[in-house]
Design goal:
Distance between the termini: 42 Å
Strand order of the largest sheet: 5-4-3-6-7
Radius of gyration: 21 Å
Structural class: alpha/beta
Number of helices: 9
Number of strands: 13
Strand content: 15-25%
Shape: elongated
Helix content: 25-40%
Length: about 260
């Protein structure tokens, strides 16, 4: 892999301040975990990466080991100045030469790939990924699934979780659109074919861990077939949705 020259000239007057990093003219910098998921899904960009986001080494990051040494960038304008020779990619509404959209569906993923492809002059992988999703085996009878995270939050119609369920040929037992935190008593009345979980062994969702601390609910979760989706596939509802749908489809064949 090409190693970028990252010599930082330091001037110490009222304090030390980093100036522009010397990078190739086609270098790329990601400032958010959301953007990381896209640039890491594009093999053509690997040798052009000058920096990944400040979350690129977190437990949710899917950054491969051989790229974890890369410098980290964030949204601070002063710190971003050092990368001004590169193309800075950010999430919607933030500082960047390119800003990716957010949406709860695969269509937004394809839209962002098109933007990156045209702006960075790289191959668009959309058709390859569409073919991958279209070739997923579809169950004869759609299994009814319930999504739950550690906080007891679930996802209904119109969410990226629901989009993954549909891609894998499953039915969402939660019909109400959006994200919900139903009372435990309501969750206990549901009877899915399987429960899809995420973040059950993580504190990412905060101190609220109702799904594992509520004795009856925890017991119910254990009583059903479970399919765990790594939390790192959900950020930004980006390309991780493709891997999530593929994993879910594979697990459904085992039920």
């Amino acid at each position: 892999m090409v190693r970028f020259l990252t010599l930082l000239s330091l001037t110490c007057l009222s304090g030390c301040k980093a100036v522009v990093v010397d990078v190739p003219p086609n270098a790329v910098v990601s400032t958010t975990l959301c953007v990381d998921t896209y640039v890491l899904a594009l093999p053509d960009l690997e040798q052009r990466l000058a920096a990944l986001s400040w979350q690129s080494r977190s437990s949710l990051s899917r950054t491969p080991e051989h790229l974890r040494h890369l410098p980290q960038a964030d949204e601070d304008p002063e710190r971003l100045h050092r990368w001004k020779a590169a193309t800075i990619i950010s999430s919607a509404g933030q500082n960047g030469d390119l800003n990716l959209s957010f949406g709860d569906n695969f269509e937004t993923v394809w839209k962002n790939f098109e933007l990156l492809s045209k702006s960075l002059d790289i191959a668009n992988p959309t058709q390859t990924f569409k073919d991958q999703l279209n070739n997923l085996p579809q169950p004869t009878i759609s299994p009814r699934l319930l999504y739950l995270n550690r906080a007891g939050m679930t996802a209904g119609r119109g969410t990226f979780v629901d989009a993954v369920f549909q891609a894998a040929g499953a039915e969402n037992i939660i019909k109400t659109p959006g994200w919900h935190s139903p009372d435990a008593e309501i969750l206990l009345t549901l009877n899915p074919d399987a429960i899809v979980t995420s973040f059950m062994s993580s504190n990412y969702v905060g101190v609220n861990d109702r799904a594992v601390r509520h004795a009856a609910l925890a017991k119910k979760i254990e009583a059903y077939p479970k399919i765990d989706i790594h939390g790192g596939l959900w950020p930004c509802a980006g390309p991780g949705l493709i891997e999530a749908a593929t994993h879910l489809s594979s697990e459904l064949t085992k039920l």
